[in-house]
Structure formats: C-alpha cells, structure tokens
Design goal:
Blueprint: E1 3-8, H1 12-24, E2 28-34, H2 38-46, E3 51-53, H3 56-61, E4 67-70, H4 77-86, E5 91-93, H5 101-114, E6 119-121, H6 129-140, E7 146-154, H7 166-183, E8 187-193, E9 208-214, E10 219-225, E11 233-240, E12 244-246, E13 254-257, E14 260-263, H8 269-290, H9 298-317, E15 321-322, H10 330-334
Parallel strand pairs: 1-2, 1-4, 2-3, 4-5, 5-6, 7-10
Antiparallel strand pairs: 7-11, 8-9, 8-15, 9-10, 11-12, 13-14
Helix pairs in contact: 1-8, 4-5, 5-9, 7-9
The structure holds NADP nicotinamide-adenine-dinucleotide phosphate.
Residues 8-14, 34-37, 40, 56, 71-74, 76, 94-95, 122, 124, 170, 269 line the site of NADP nicotinamide-adenine-dinucleotide phosphate.
Length: 335
C-alpha cells in the first residue's frame, strides 16, 4: 500500500522531503502540499503532481492525505501536530517539536490521550550510519562506562536572521537530543560559555560552548560555531573508561599527497546528512505501514526543548542551570 503524504511547509527542508518521498523512498507518495506562500507550494508540488493548499489545516483534513509532514517554522509546529493528532493521522514533525516546553507538553498530553504513538520528531542524526555505529560501540560496553563526550557543530555561515539563541534552539538542539540517545540518560544540568566571538558577525555570540551533565555525571562539551567559514563539520567523540569512539569524517576519505594529509569537508548540512534523512523518512513510512511507531518520540522532542530552555537561561546568566522536566510517562517508557 502506498502512503499518501501531505507536506506542510515548502521551504528548504520541505522541498527536500517532497523530493525524497516522491522519488527516493518506497511505498510513499506526496498527494498534497501547503504553504502560506501559495506560489512556493505550487512550485514544490509540481514534480509530485500533488494538490496545493494554502491552509495546513485543510491539508490535514483532506481525505487524500493519510499522514502529514510538518516542515514549517518552529512556532507553527504545535497547531499542525495537534490538528493531525485530533484526526488520528500520523505526523512527522521537523525539529524542534515546538519552541517551548509548554507547547511540547500539550502535544505529549494530546498523544497520550489519543492512546497510541502518532508523532515522530525529525532528529535525523539518530539515523546517521556514523552515529549508529558509535552508539553500538557504547551500548556493547567495549569502552567501559562513558565519562566524557566532545562534540563540535560547525557551519560555514549563518543567515542574517540567525540569532545567538538560535545557536542553541536550531543547531545544538541536535546534540541535546543525541546526548540523551547516545548515553540513554537524561541531561540534568547545563552551562553555556561564551568564548571570544568571531568578528564575522558582531551581533552574534558564535562560537558558544555548551556543557551538558548527564544523570550519572557524564560531561559533554559541545562547541557550536555557525560562522566557521571553512565548511559544515560535525564531530563527536565518546571517551570511556577503556577507550574512545569517534565519528568518522564525511566519506572517510583521507588523501595524503605532497607532504599533506587532507580530507573532504562538505559545505552544507543537506549533503552531510542526506543518507540519514532518507533512512529516517523511510523508517517513518514503514512504521505507519507496520502500525508500530519508531524513532524519536514527542517525549524526546519535549526533552530536547527542556534542555534547550535551560541552555538559553545559562546563555543569559552565565551560570549552571538545572534542567526542569516532568518524569517520563509509562506511555513513552514502553513505547
Ligand atoms: P524555510 O525554508 O523557512 O521553510 C518554511 C516554509 O514554511 C516557508 O515556505 C514558510 O513560508 C512556510 N511557513 C511558515 N509558517 C507557515 C505556516 N504557519 N503554515 C504554512 N506554511 C508556513 O525553513 P526550513 O529551513 O525548511 O525549516 C523548516 C523546519 O525544518 C524548521 O523547524 C527547521 O528547524 C527544520 N529543519 C530541520 C533540519 C534537520 O536537520 N532536521 C534541517 C533544516 C530545517 P514563509 O517563508 O513565507 O514564512
């Protein structure tokens, strides 16, 4: 059976998801596209031959739509995810699930009230082959107990609209999710440090260093640097009692030539995580067919936003901030 998907938001990632669902994945097609910018929706829908809607709510209600992808900007995610839940339609929501913990909890509560998991959040790094291999090593126990995690999240340049808070809410949010997933523990406290800023943008605090403390005391440091000029460079190393595991460079090709050792660095996140997006969305499509939800849950979306809220407080105060979270409901512990 082919899953008929409606995509709300036809910007950068929405267009890429439409292409993926239409031409790369199996058992799925795009039947509807909505965007506040009707021309953008029309253009994006063209190759898929999909119906165009100006209202995301009309798209969710359409009989031609079995499942929904939400790829609009963060503050509008809640209303569309809640509308999809109200209709009992599975929904893939791009990160962040919602920008505030209150909004995330309204989604969590609505999903629990519905009685079955219908939400998958777009934390696609959990589907990246490199991160999966790292997690397998950590879970196997070869390294002993994890003690430290070192991460870097660097991009070449940030758009003029990108703010200092967005280094946390848009960029580091991926590492905030990854730490919980890699370690299998909640993050309990955070501190955000402000090193000397790049002169590329005087209005932006970039880089930042985010320190995350897990329940058992593992310390993770995340360097987030959105105007690093040279490329899109993602690094991660887990240091355990008996050894370390590191994420390989993109493509794992190292060239040694004329007294230099060099490796390729992509210049865009789409290129670095292309395969992970494909695997992520195929897993979502397959899970709906199988009637068993997989991947990051609405609870994971809430947890990442809760840690991000603590980071924003620490960015302002410069102090260590304790993460405030509800206890995890059984619904997600077993789901
Ligand atoms: P974008 O290029 O700005 O696209 C968003 C589109 O949605 C725009 O066409 C926008 O129209 C439209 N829109 C905004 N509010 C809407 C609403 N209420 N109803 C219908 N359409 C609406 O943004 P993007 O870069 O694709 O990002 C979209 C989401 O994906 C964000 O949450 C972002 O964090 C996430 N994302 C995730 C990843 C990842 O790695 N998982 C990567 C990139 C983005 P206007 O431009 O007219 O506002």
């Amino acid at each position: 059976m082919t899953l008929r998907v409606g995509v709300i938001g036809a910007g950068n990632i929405g267009q890429d998801h439409i292409r993926r669902l239409s031409h790369v994945l199996s058992s799925a097609c795009v039947t509807a596209v909505a965007d506040v910018d009707l021309d953008r929706a029309r253009t994006a829908s063209h190759a898929a031959g999909a119906e165009v809607f100006q209202s995301g709510h009309d798209l969710i209600a359409a009989p031609s739509v079995d499942a929904v992808v939400v790829a609009t900007w963060g503050p509008s995610h809640e209303e569309y995810v809640l509308a999809a839940l109200a209709m009992g339609k599975p929904v893939f929501c791009e990160k962040p699930l919602a920008p505030t913990t209150e909004a995330c909890l309204r989604i969590v509560d609505a999903e629990i009230a519905r009685g079955r998991r219908l939400v998958q959040v777009g934390f696609m790094r959990r589907f990246d082959a490199g991160y999966r291999a790292m997690k397998a090593v950590v879970d196997k126990g070869t390294l002993g107990a994890p003690l430290l995690v070192h991460c870097a999240h660097r991009g070449p340049s940030a758009p003029p609209t990108f703010t200092s808070d967005m280094l946390i809410t848009d960029s580091t949010i991926h590492e905030l999710d990854l730490m919980r997933w890699l370690l299998g523990e909640e993050t309990v406290a955070v501190t955000v440090l402000r090193p000397r800023s790049s002169t590329a943008r005087t209005d932006l605090i970039s880089p930042q260093v985010v320190l995350l403390e897990s329940e058992s005391g593992v310390l993770a440091d995340v360097e987030v640097f959105v105007n690093a000029v040279y490329g899109y460079d993602i690094r991660c190393e887990v240091v355990g009692e008996l050894g370390t595991v590191s994420l390989g460079d993109f493509g794992n090709v190292v060239v040694a030539h004329a007294g230099q050792r060099s490796t390729y660095v992509p210049d865009h996140w789409i290129e670095r995580f292309m395969a992970a997006y494909d695997v992520e969305m195929q897993a979502w499509v397959d899970s709906i067919g199988a009637g068993r939800a997989v991947g990051p849950t609405a609870w994971d979306g809430y947890a990442a936003t809760a840690v991000a809220a603590a980071c924003l407080e620490s960015l302002q105060s410069g102090r260590r901030v304790t993460v405030q979270m509800r206890p995890c409901p059984d619904f997600y512990a077993t789901g």
